[in-house]
Amino acid sequence: MDLEEVTRLFSERFREPPAIVIRAPGRVNLIGEHTDYNDGFVLPLAIDRAVWLALRPRTDRTTHVWSSEFTETVQFPLDRLEHGGPSWSEYLKGTAWALAAAGHRLSGWDGVIGSDVPIGAGLSSSAALELATARAFAATSQIPWDPSAMARLAQRAENEWVGVKCGIMDQLISAIGREGHAVLIDCRTLDTTAVPLPEHVDVVILDTATRRGLVDSAYNERRRQCDSAAAFFGVAALRDVTPSMFEARAGGLDETTARRARHVVTENARTLAAAEAMRRGDAPALGSLMNESHRSLHADFEVSSAALDTMVEIAQAQRGCHGARMTGAGFGGCAVALVDQGAVPVFVGRVAVEYERRTGLVPRLYATGATAGAARIGT
Ligand code: ADP
Ligand code: MG
Description:
Bound molecules: adenosine-5'-diphosphate, magnesium ion
Largest sheet: 6 strands, mixed
Number of helices: 11
Strand content: 15-25%
Strand order of the largest sheet: 5-4-6-3-1-13
Structural class: alpha+beta
Order of helices and strands: HEEEEEHEHHHEEEHHHHHEEHEE
């Protein structure tokens, strides 16, 4: 999907070119997993796959949107937003609701959505759709574009309207992504720092073609274990436990809780070290931190899966691969690898063949650079 394609989709339906085109990217997290709800650090980047939204303002207060993914139209009045209709429309209505609840007066538009962010693959097509919607309303309703504030409203839409309990990472990186950079996010203060990707490397997303099951109960159990570990250390969140504090006192925890806490404590340290390695342009150091992250998620936090372990092992063994790890909540979904640009075509071919040979599953692999956050494109 790109500017031309979404413009063409719009023109086909409305017999004129769009007045406004919006792009909002999906994302992948390089390192910093299961740290967000422990007030810790994450290091995501906006990928080169995005939700595109082409539109023209309307003079009334309704919005009409066609999705090329779902090949259907939804329309909703901005004065009476209600649940119901196709489930994908909830992301748009929820975003409108959150903007209105923040005191913005919205005007309507006719739009067409085109996207190449795979749905439900863990690359956050939902956050991309929310940010595209928010950016569209900002453009038609003269709302000043404050990316961080808009990310918080989009998160509120997903939490309270759609009913999905997600943290702020997905919306924030889709809003504030920067070309060629990952963004270190402090999940306690929401401070963000862009750090450059090392030169001549690509990020390769490795979709295992497995999806997480039973994730909610396992996720809630991990959260409880983290909370009880924080209580044991007498701190607000595991973010406040340093590696040396952990070593000194972890003996007082039961064995499982100690391993859960060790993952979070060491993962926060690795994420900060990864940002440092990036500032030095040190791809090998960044890659080994990713490898360590995977080991910790597998052995201490126990949220990997056979498919993820196989994918990561195959990726790590390839020439030109600096490191690889599972990414996202776990139990399925995607891994992420850091690969020398020149080695990417061979890497992708070999990983695909070897993964299919060992699992019988057909993976999807996407090489990506880091792109800019949600924005108006062109006119
Ligand atoms: P993801 O990991 O991709 O964010 P989610 O389940 O959180 O998975 O969100 C996917 C949902 O977002 C889809 O089921 C759909 O409702 C909505 N969505 C994503 N992309 C589009 C699109 N191009 N058009 C319409 N709705 C979309
Ligand atoms: Mg989502």
